[in-house]
Give the backbone structure.
Amino acid sequence: MKKYNFILTILAATALISSCGNQGNNNSTGALASSAAEKAYVAPGEHDEFYAFMSGGYSGNITVYGLPSGRLFKEIPVFSQFPTSGYGYSEETKPMLNTSFGFVPWDDAHHPDISQTNGELDGRWIFINGNNTPRIARVSLSTFETEEIIELPNSAGNHSSSFITENTEYVVAGTRFSVPIPQRDMPINEYKGNFKGSLSFISIAPETGRLNLDFQMIMPGFNYDLSHPGRGKSHGWFFFTTYNTEEANTLQEVNASQNDKDFIAAVNWKMVADYVKNGGGTKMATEYAHNVYDEHTHTATSTMKKEVITVDPTEVPGAVFFLPTPKSPHGCDVDPSGQYIIGNGKLSADLTIHSFDKMIAAIEGEKFDGEAYGIPILRFEDVLAGTVKSGGLGPLHTEFDDKGNAYTTFFISSEVVKWKLGTWEVLDRQPTFYSVGHLMIPGGNSRKPFGKYVVAMNKITKDRYLPTGPEMEHSAQIYDISGDKMELIYDFPTHGEPHYAAGCPADLLAPKSKKIYRLDDNKHPYAVTSPDQAKVVREGNEVHVYMSTIRSHFTPDNIEGIKVGDKVYFHITNHEQDFDVPHGFAMIGQNTSELLIMPGQTKTSVWEPKKVGVWPFYCTDFCSALHQEMQGYVRVSPADSNVPLTYSLGE
Amino acid sequence: MNTKTFSIGLVFSLLLFACGGKEEKKEGFSVDRKKTTEKTVESTEPASEVPASQRITLDNKGVGPIKDLPLDPNIDQAMVDRGAALFKTNCNACHKVDKRFIGPSPKGIMERRSPEWIMNMILDPQLMVEEDRCAKDLLVEFNGAAMANQNMTEDQARDILEFFRTLN
């Protein structure tokens, strides 16, 4: 009886607490009242509302997460070899990582950007830059595979990249390091006046997405840090933050921070593109790789290009202007209307907002404040729209919602600050954990943001999770921004070092996500489309194994007549035509990775047997109840043996 | 008794290993293991005594999209040709016309299974294995090698069926 009463009391108390909680929701203050867990919770079997594509930084790849759950769906290999799938190891994908420096199996991936139509995300492709050995990659958002990588000559530290103009006319890439152009042997301390910075405009074919390095602008030797396209009224312009306008070549930490103001370079790319189209620019001999993956042959080819068109900005009057911007600006962001260009001086407490209209008026009035290497400098006061006095320290990057608000990260004071466009009033601030770099709102750098969540990507993790030794994954926080105040709802680790990220509504991509490769579309030259075509062919000391797989056997699974010193190519076609039934292939002692072959796909792995014996291979992906039976043997005989070449299955 | 047999076997295996270094051809060991047909407790159907591959289940239409499929008495050769080509690309890895392989041979299948059952098995093998008794027993008889869904359209499955009609 006593116990019964006790339970009743508890029940009543709970009911009271619950009802109070509901009322409290309106203010959305405090995690208890608003149930942060419920907002981030996506029930088992349910799908997330948004995709988030995070750059992997030094992993060289892109990771795909769901929002609001923070669940990791996939890592897409882009610039780095990836043994999980065999990317960069298989014969078909090795050409993707070819450069003018030879095979470069890694890069530092920074800023993904999704293709746009009329300034809105269209979900066809995502682009990302390789920072170290300058490259731009295009990834298909139906296969989630890297389809193209183009190297950039005359660039070094490809950082102010890869940003998309509002109809995906160009993917734009600026150099962080200025270098001698063309490269030559010269003293480092003769940097000033001699080194140059290149801004690359890579056109995108509307149907195929095929990339072409249309032209490079050869700019003064500053560091071009970040960039964003104009949109709406400012479509046709591109804006780049610069630092090291001092043109220092050593102890940059001090020497590149001397000037009170650096510049935002405003480039009228439409004017320059027309100039080039009409025969302007200078052809320069150079060398860069262009690598293209064909979805139908499942094979990449690498072509070495020998020439690029360079444009001297002083030859195109009216195309380039410098907007003075305080304190070594880092982030360069344009609001959804295209009116405001935000430059965040990373050594400042304030944000500087330039007005596109005022910039045009100043240009038309020819109100210049001198020039730098022949490029007109506009007067700061003439282009300034306003300043956000936030009280934070170290502003880096800004994204936008669909209600006229902007959200800026502050690295030094570890916070996200929400402010109002036009009034420059600070509306809210929330701490991040810790030292936030970029932030991302799905569509937050387009004309149509989806202002429901913002993800803050932090540089320092420290105590956020269980410790895993000195090396930890970086932390990210997700905030609900649908109300007046931002609300921290979840915190999750991210792989590599995400710099920027891009997000979009799930329904933009999910319905067109490819499930299988159709076997009857397979144009791979070594594919076998029916198991009776499986064969083993010797051409000198090269042996080509045309092999097929289906649950759960390889055809053939016994091969004899291979000799030490042979180069054996296993061309494996997965004959499954069902969603999510890949097969793997691994050969003992192989000096490369396994392969993971999707349904209907063909991949090739090379094996150079070094030892006499009978050596097994097997399927690495648990494919069926009989997966452990999915194996085979290769008999390797001495180099001078006469064992005939034979192959079989079930004999 | 069992323990004793096992011990003898073990000694025999050890002997085999000891001989491994020599050149002479080994026949390996063999154990007389007759395959037992699964007898599930709840089963009362006498049909389960006959291996599923030999059972005649012409009245069973199976489970899946095909409910009723009357066949024209004349065989359509164009369909047969298309079906044979599809069979070669999509089925041949596991089904051989002339022998039992990973799965059963399609030879004579029209005398054992209804057209609807065959079509359903091609179109949704997973559902069939879950809900159709015969399909379930076949999976067990064929060592748990589950039939792959090859994403055939109904027309493609129908062509394959027409090809099966020529295999008697």
Q: What stands out?
A: The longest helix of chain B spans residues 2-18.
